[in-house]
């Protein structure tokens, strides 16, 4: 028994070390490399602009945000070329297409850059995004992005870097921090926006189940009550952070904060009584999560096409649950709900994807 305990302790220490090393080598060391490798041979910068510095900057309360939190450094310690998948491009394009008066920002937390004016390495999906005048690609530095916010000191204590679900929890960290900084609309990368959301009153999220709200679609005003909610989310994130629980720091945060605002844990009461939540709107599942994650295959099965379209007829957004569906490619022209949504709502990305989407 003693030997087993010793091995468990050693294993835990090794996990913490490798996790922290992965965090620092990629996100922190990568920022240094980004500075060193920012210029091409002809002196032109090909590094993505920092969201805090590059123009145009996010317009508080009138911007849509996506986060890309995977972090890649090649074996020879070079920065990776910017990459987006067809489905990520679809999410971004659909947001830009349906919301022309909002600026759409994709924030890359890992150190990455795109090659400029290099026709030998075309990037059709990146070009599809940038073909919209309101589409913007930016990088962020975790430390400088947190600087001057309630998360500045918390980030330095290392709890995030020791997370078992590092990239997922960085995504959770950033979505609440971004809403605190700018307000506006946060969207997960595995959605398709189906219609305009510019006139939906701010300060809302959606129910995923009868017991939990979800954190994949959230809107908060940049000032007033919305900013107070964002500050409450940051406090909850710090106080309840759990590096070994996948959902505690994402949907768990907005669920707990909403419970306090609304004075109830009953999701039905949150939805049915707007006054109870003091103006914070909780949409029913049909708005953003009409197809629950356990039925994610319905988006991809031809025999479920009509049923799925009918189920999502009143949705603003469909969520295709990338954690489960990402390894199931669909052939362009397939007769399923996801292919139909993509063809209609992100036509340029759908066309640029190639044979499979």
Automatic annotation (TrEMBL):
<comment type="similarity">
    <text>Belongs to the glycosyltransferase 32 family.</text>
</comment>
<dbReference type="InterPro" id="IPR051981">
    <property type="entry name" value="Glycosyltransf_32"/>
</dbReference>
<dbReference type="GO" id="GO:0006679">
    <property type="term" value="P:glucosylceramide biosynthetic process"/>
</dbReference>
<dbReference type="InterPro" id="IPR007577">
    <property type="entry name" value="GlycoTrfase_DXD_sugar-bd_CS"/>
</dbReference>
<keyword id="KW-0328">Glycosyltransferase</keyword>
<dbReference type="Pfam" id="PF04488">
    <property type="entry name" value="Gly_transf_sug"/>
</dbReference>
<dbReference type="GO" id="GO:0009247">
    <property type="term" value="P:glycolipid biosynthetic process"/>
</dbReference>
<feature type="domain" description="Alpha 1,4-glycosyltransferase">
    <location>
        <begin position="223"/>
        <end position="353"/>
    </location>
</feature>
<keyword id="KW-0472">Membrane</keyword>
<protein>
    <submittedName>
        <fullName>Alpha1,4-N-acetylgalactosaminyltransferase</fullName>
    </submittedName>
</protein>
<dbReference type="InterPro" id="IPR029044">
    <property type="entry name" value="Nucleotide-diphossugar_trans"/>
</dbReference>
<dbReference type="GO" id="GO:0043066">
    <property type="term" value="P:negative regulation of apoptotic process"/>
</dbReference>
<dbReference type="GO" id="GO:0006688">
    <property type="term" value="P:glycosphingolipid biosynthetic process"/>
</dbReference>
<dbReference type="Pfam" id="PF04572">
    <property type="entry name" value="Gb3_synth"/>
</dbReference>
<dbReference type="GO" id="GO:0000139">
    <property type="term" value="C:Golgi membrane"/>
</dbReference>
<keyword id="KW-0808">Transferase</keyword>
<dbReference type="GO" id="GO:0035248">
    <property type="term" value="F:alpha-1,4-N-acetylgalactosaminyltransferase activity"/>
</dbReference>
<dbReference type="InterPro" id="IPR007652">
    <property type="entry name" value="A1-4-GlycosylTfrase_dom"/>
</dbReference>
<keyword id="KW-0333">Golgi apparatus</keyword>
<dbReference type="GO" id="GO:0008376">
    <property type="term" value="F:acetylgalactosaminyltransferase activity"/>
</dbReference>
